[in-house]
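Local shape tokens:
==================
===
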Amino acid sequence: MGNLLLFRQDELIHKFVLPKTCGSSSICSCPDGSLYVCGYDSPTVHLLNRNGKPIQVLRCWDKDFFLPDCLTMTRSGSVAVTDLSKGLVRIYNPNSQPSWVRVGGNFDSPQGIAMDSSGRLLVAEYSSGTVLAFHVDRAYRIHKAQKATGLKGPTYICTTPDGGFAVSEECGDVKLFTSNLKLAYSLSKTYQHSFGNPVGICADPEGNIMVVDQQHRNVTLFPLSGSPVCVVSKGLSRPTGIACSPLGQLFVIDSADNSVKVYKYRVRPYYNSTSPRRSVDKP
């Protein structure tokens, strides 16, 4: 019962429909509460305010249109996207021609992407079952590349407050890694939890990890201690991406109706200032 007193369940507070030209698989929350959204079914990245009103549209053009799979924000405030079909990672730079600049060379079926606290880009490579971590210089060249291996169909990725990261595996599990790319533990084994098809994942400042399960059509929160809590158990048809805002809200993409559903998941209005979990520590 302890965690049920800390976290809300099925508290939908808002829903907005994405623009018709907007894909619906990946979402990223900005520090000011605005949102970047993209998907592999549309050659655009949309910037929306926290209520879903369009602010800006970034056309995905690099000698030809391309379809972004997942996105993240860099420390400089730029947008980085993966392109699974062409095996590329690009960063948006409005001062270059074309505006989307290729990072390094080709990647092995890149899907999920995130940036950690040290400024490294993390890219989940689906076919090879790896996560590639690297720094990018001003010429968009890759430096100090390292790999985490042994994954089975990694799709989405998110960073954790301790400098580590979490990766979802298609029809499998969610694995947590340390900042030096060592496997810490899996959520299914640690929490004795059975996933259907885990897809979008995010972590809040306290280290709570939220996982979208597309098969079960729900969102489960894995806390610092105690049992998992199903924070969204109804109302989702085909959920994909997820993001948590600085205001303690969850943004969940439902690609069935091309919408974003916004939930309150915390009882307390503010995050705890104590240290979050470390990836090396099992709950």
Summary: The domain at 3-266 is CATH 2.120.10.30 (Neuraminidase).
